[in-house]
């Protein structure tokens, strides 16, 4: 079930500019902004590296990503795509 859903909490953390560490679920492991872990030790290592600033965390990157994944942004993108396809179809 977890591989079939989008983790909404991910976008909430990103909108707050927070890094995300997740278990190795499909929607997270394919996201370059998410630190994924396949074991307890790997999860703890990510925490350690983030807290010790070994991994540079740019909160603006997370926030920009979250803005591009709001429902408003997605609907607007889809509407623009449909308008573009209608123009192509008419020509």
User: What is the H/E string?
Assistant: HEHEHHH
Largest sheet: 2 strands, parallel
Global morphology: elongated
DSSP strand count = 2
Helix content: 55-70%
- N-to-C CA distance: 44 Å
Structural class: mainly alpha
Mean pLDDT figure: 85
Q: Please state roughly what percent of the residues sit in beta strands, choosing from under 5%, 5-15%, 15-25%, 25-35%, 35-45% or over 45%.
A: 5-15%
Strand order of the largest sheet: 1-2
> What gyration radius follows from the Cα positions, in whole Å?
17 Å
Weakly predicted, low-confidence segments: none
Q: Tally the helices: what do you get?
A: 5
How would you describe what is shown here?
With 91 residues, this protein is mainly α. The protein is 58% helix and 9% strand. The chain contains five helices and two strands; from the N terminus they run αβαβααα. The chain has a two-stranded parallel sheet. Strand 1, helix 2 (26-29) and strand 2 (34-37) form a beta-alpha-beta unit. The chain is elongated, with a radius of gyration of 17 Å.
